[in-house]
Amino acid sequence: MANSHGNSHSEAAKLEQIITEFYAKSLQIVLESRSPYMSSRNYSGEQVVSSPSSSSSSSSSVRPRDKWFNLALRECPAALENIDLWRQSNLEPMVVDVILVQSPLDSDQVNFSLKKDVFRNLTMKERDPFCSNSDQEEFGCEGKSEKIIERWVVQYDSRKVRDCSSSGSRRSSNSSLHMFYKKSILLLRSLYVTVRLLPAYKVYRELTSSGKILPFSLAHRVSSFVEPITRREEAELQRFGFTPVDTPCGRLCLSVLYCPSVSDISSESSTPISPQVIHDYVGSPLADPLKRFPSLPVAGSTSHGSPSSSPFARRHSWSFDIYRSSPPSASFSPSPTHSEAHASISNSSSRRFPPTCLPPHPPETTLVHKKDTSFDEYYPSPAFSPSPSPSPSPSPPIRIPVSHLSKALLRSESAPVNIPEAKFVNSPSVSNKQNVPPSPPLKTTISSTSRTDKSLGLIQTGTAVEKSFSLGKEESRQHLGLKISSNSSLPISLSRSSSRSFPDDFDDSEFACAFDVDVDDVTDPGSRTESFEQKGLLCEPLEPGGLFPVRKSQDAAVGALVLMLRKAAPLCQDFSNSASLSQVSNPEAWSDGIQEPERTSEGPVPIQHVSSPSVMSSGLNVPRTTADALEELQGYREMKNLLLKQGSNSHI
Amino acid sequence: MNCEVCQLKELEVEHFEIREVLRCILHTIVFHRALGLVRPKDIDLELFEITYVQCGDSELEKKIDEKIEQFISWVEKHPNKKSQICLSFYEVKKNKQASWFTNKIERLYWEHWYINLNVAQQARTHSSKSHHSKVVVDPGEGALDERSTRRAALEASLREVLFQIIKFVNEKKDHVPPIPNLEAVVSFPYEITIPSSSDSAFGMDIIKRMLQTGHPTMLS
């Protein structure tokens, strides 16, 4: 057992190295499952295995690092930054705070702010090493509330040197080192599992798995000292202590204080938003859509509205994106493709969405038809497909950008015009890559592809961003129209809000993004979950927003229409009934119906009227048939009704 | 060497939940005992909002699934019984020649995990709800409520079990033998014993286990 005394130094060095690596590994484990934008989850299983995603600088180092504790982890940039700092300050305690950042604002506002925050965060991260947290630290500024939901403490309590060097310890230093190493492996294994069982992991999953824009986010802070927590906060926290591991010279301690009720927060906030947004969008879109008839079916076709809709701008903010693309009209052609893409995407993620897509974009008809086959049950797709081919084209431009981006973007909603820019800004790289070339604007979607699985279309976007880029490129194209919207789910919510009250305030760009997002959401996720809820919600919000926006800018209106169309698709599922009805008569109605199944009753007819003019400009021209026109008219009527209602309610 | 035993809290499951619950528990345990180079794989349960971790070893995955299928078929033959599955880790003892006379190389068990399940009778739950309804929503609201309540309770219990595993792993580290094989993901030999298997070929193991631990492997 006894090792030579000479070894003691090296032993000590080894011990120190193990401890240092333990710090690094534990930090990596924690952040990997708490830092939404760099999580392995985004990469999915592949990451784990290959860690390709992390590719960045770390990739090269992966191997050696993975060997430590026989635990190969995906590279986590946030952790790496901090780890380097920690290597220098060896054996100081390491405190990792996981912070839940929530915006105090209403859901709408929240969404917007979130988006902004996201952007900031992103930038911040890059700049600030300390902010390792991904996204949220930066937020703090805007009145958002931060709450520490987890505090991980890694600490090494060393005995005095004498103890260490005592004969007893020396004797078995070698074996004890092995023992220590083995135990630290066990400790890290249990940490790895524990991190995924704590409530905060649900928050993380929501952030990464859904395309939705959420009113909350996770940030982290790594420091060497414990920031005081108020008693009140502390009272809410529970402690889980891992059994310390004894070393020859001390003990390695790991513990966590966590908030048991965190998951509630996330779940509550997330769901409501998306639905609401949808409604708004619908309303606004409706107005626009009417004008845009052609587009209606093609929610994506925002383009239709875009031109005419300047007044609508608010709602259309998202539509604006669309508009952007649409105005160019040329984009239209592309858009259809997008829509198709969306449809396909939506199918994958959520079948329902596709239908929405279909209706909007007549050009896509082929696609639509395909979709129809699958979706026929729900959607009257056929009708849709014929009608608004034009509209679809515009949609692509919408792109709605990557989910992540979209979040930020979403907020921007306000100015339709800007929106396009915003989108670009946010997702420039993404959009470029993924999307459709045809529609410059195509924000399409990054997120959409990301994860359908979770049911939340929205979620997908967020996580997906990275994925979406990779995954999405193909899909994104498909989704661009629809899926994108899904990604933007968060944005959608934003859009609603924006349309109502905020639109003006917000930057155009943001709004646009938001809208786009919303649209996407609607199609994908929204259709599933949100569709129902949203429908109801949307109706009200939409109306008010719709009225204003319409007046503001035709483009906006167009955008709104596009959005509605997009949204509609998702709704279709839910709305299948309504949609089918409407569809039968008018393709456009479809879109309307889809978007606002609930609404349909109220104002389909009016909407159609309103929208028709604008719509005509962009989308109508293209593919419509008389039947489509009729449908559109109905849709416009509804839109009008909605707008009127909204106007009366919220009119300025 | 000590042989530690961990009796996991009994879970009341419905038939269709057996597979997922067992996968979750077995993989979680093995992950803690797979001390080779592991690339963790997160798995989200479909029935519950729980994420567990696999160690990404296809052989292990296959073996676990096989055992689960065996167990399920056993359950079908023996309804209304509480059942137990045992996951054991051992070392192979080579020294004693005496061991050669026995039909197997001697296994020194250093850990047993007992997973206790109480498979609820389907009829008891609700005649209308057959297991096929796992994903499908039942028509009756009352049934749904009851079902969701029960599901939530099971999820909480399953989470408890997972924490029980984590705590056990944390508290009992000394008995874990040195890592014999660093190349293999699953570094220690293990076996999974289910009631049915105990009936037949595994008699020897069971006897040994009984002698060593005093806990009968077989339940029923």
Automatic annotation (TrEMBL), chain A:
Listed GO CC annotations: Atg1/ULK1 kinase complex; cytosol; phagophore assembly site
Any one Gene Ontology BP term: piecemeal microautophagy of the nucleus
Autophagy-related protein 13 N-terminal domain residues: 19-258
One Pfam short name: ATG13
InterPro entries: ATG13 (IPR040182), Atg13_N (IPR018731), HORMA_dom_sf (IPR036570)
Transmembrane spans: none
Keywords of this entry: Autophagy
Name of the protein: Autophagy-related protein 13 N-terminal domain-containing protein
Species, as recorded: Rhamnella rubrinervis
Automatic annotation (TrEMBL), chain B:
InterPro entries: ATG101
Keywords assigned: Autophagy
One GO MF term attached to the UniProt entry: protein kinase binding
Keyword Iron in annotation: no
GO biological process, one term: autophagosome assembly
A GO-annotated cellular component: phagophore assembly site
Pfam families named among the record's database cross-references: ATG101 (PF07855)
Family from the record: Belongs to the ATG101 family.
Name this protein carries in UniProt: Autophagy-related protein 101
Organism: Rhamnella rubrinervis
